[in-house]
Amino acid sequence: MNIEYIHSWSMKPVQAIDLQKKLRDKLTFEDYSREPRLVAGIDVSFPFREIALAVIVIMEFNSLSIVDHFFSLKKVETPYIPGLLSFREGPAILDALSRSPEVDLLFFDGHGIAHPRGIGIASHIGLFVEIPTIGVAKSLLYGKVESLPREKGQSSRILSPGGRLLGYALCTRTSVKPVFISPGNRITAESALRLSIRTIGKYRIPEPTRQAHILTQRLKNQLIL
């Protein structure tokens, strides 16, 4: 996959926050009207304290069948700081993406613009690639959900304190806590929701990031053993 390395990752937290504020103005949002063929789910885990394992699982969009996978192990130089996740996981993700062929969409285990500074990991990494990115998070980091959806396929808007649309809470299983969909880059919230709905399987987590998580845990356990 083609990667444009727009900045280095080693910096102090205050510098990282300042960079986020500058980068969020570079995000673009456009309707995604075409039919994707290949999509990828991305997940990161830590088999060891300072080692990140990033996994890319490529899937055929219509069938949700796995086509291929790629992974990267990278030494982590940045501690975990809330709101700065991309600076900790980004290098490993980009290394894994550099091994992957081009796909049509990227689904991240994390947030897009539903983030205190409007640039979660799906948005931030989305600036390094030339394809749309979507955040699929298991919990809400920023914003307020109008009302929690309860039925499978239902959704409710996530709004900023000022009323800006940040994404959607999407119910993927009836009476189960929703997931939180937000656009990363090169896609609108509405398109991100529509495409995410089509990746729902039998489980709470949509298939691209669910399959990436499964493989991440399998590889992590092999490394630990």
Give a short synopsis of this structure.
The chain has 225 residues and is of the alpha+beta class. The protein has helices at residues 13-23, 85-99, 121-126, 189-197, 207-224; strands spanning 38-48, 51-60, 65-75, 105-108, 133-137, 144-145, 155-159, 165-170, 179-185.
Textual characterization of the structure:
With 225 residues, the chain is α+β, with helices and mostly antiparallel strands. It has helices at 13-23, 85-99, 121-126, 189-197, 207-224; strands spanning 38-48, 51-60, 65-75, 105-108, 133-137, 144-145, 155-159, 165-170, 179-185. It has a nine-stranded mixed β-sheet with strand order 3-2-1-4-5-9-8-7-6, with helices on both faces. The longest helix has 18 residues, at 207-224.
**Biggest pleated sheet:** 9 strands, mixed
Q: What is the tally of helical segments?
A: 5
> SS-based structural class?
alpha+beta
Mean pLDDT: 96
Shape: globular
Could you list the spans in which at least 5 consecutive residues all have pLDDT below 50? none
Q: Order of strands in the sheet with the most strands?
A: 3-2-1-4-5-9-8-7-6
Distance between the termini: 31 Å
What integer value in Å does the Rg equal?
16 Å
- Strand tally is 9
Give the H and E element order: HEEEHEHEEEEEHH
Q: What fraction strand? A: 25-35%
What helical percentage do the residues reach? 25-40%
